[in-house]
Design a protein that fits this description.
about 60% helix; elongated; about 140 residues
């Protein structure tokens, strides 16, 4: 079987240089996500930062943060995401938004009150949506 790995010398580099570049790219990725979290931008999965750091062989301290800060930023992200899904559910009545809210609450310690609703309101609205006649249900 043939070794398909490229020899770094073919591109005028060394294994050490390529490994350093690899770490630098993953560190940059983690820093970009952290800046986005700190600025309040919604990030799909805040914990992805840990994967980037793992790939770079780095720690949270290496990018100037801690487990506590990341947990607080992640929690804030999930609260905002749940509120956004709740707003979509109220405005459009989409079951996908309903289930997104439930999923976030099930995976975190966020409460109904924190996102501005109650379980009763959500269930009542979902039941009402289920009773609506649509062209497909007639």
């Amino acid at each position: 079987m043939t070794d398909t790995r490229m020899d770094p010398r073919r591109i005028g580099s060394t294994k050490a240089e390529l490994e350093a570049m690899h770490r630098k790219v993953w560190k940059y990725d983690a820093e970009v996500i952290l800046r986005a979290l700190r600025s309040g931008q919604l990030v799909d999965e805040p914990e992805i930062i840990l994967n980037s750091l793992d790939m770079a062989g780095l720690t949270l301290a290496d990018i100037g943060t801690s487990e506590e800060e990341l947990a607080a930023l992640s929690r804030k992200q999930y609260v905002e995401a749940a509120k956004e899904h709740l707003e979509n559910f109220r405005e459009f009545g989409t079951p996908m938004s309903y289930f997104a809210v439930l999923s976030i609450l099930a995976q975190t310690d966020i409460t109904w009150e924190e996102i501005g609703t109650t379980a009763g309101e959500m269930f009542e609205n979902m039941a009402r949506i289920g009773r609506k006649k649509t062209p497909l249900s007639e």
